[in-house]
Write a structure and sequence with these properties.
Layout lengths: L24 E5 L4 H6 L6 E5 L6 H7 L3 E5 L1 E2 L2 E2 H10 L6 E5 L5 H12 L4 E5 L6
Amino acid sequence: MPPPIDAPKGSKRLETAGLSLTGRRILVVDPSQSLPRALRGVQGANVTIARLSMIDAELMARIAPDVVLSPLFSPGHDILDFARLLDRLGYKGPLRAYSPPLPNTSIVCAEVRQIWGPRDFDILEVPPAWN
């Protein structure tokens, strides 16, 4: 079993080393240009990039991700829509949304936790310099 994700709940900046993604199966959904670039330094991770329309029970079973990363907002959906889908598909692992810096992530996290419950969720803020 891989070590726990150690992006602390209060962490608001994406620091690739701080995510401990080495050796993990990572599903990145509808990525922006910045996040895959940030993942390039991660050693030994198995990164799968998929569109939201591709996410179904078969894909989730085949990939068996240790962590799922998705933008907070994308054209046509947001993290709430995606959390509902993952919940229906039975995914129980960590979910990370990423976005430019926000004025108050706790409000968004509270909304997502209404759907996601006690499972591991956090928002990673991607610094503007990474865009």
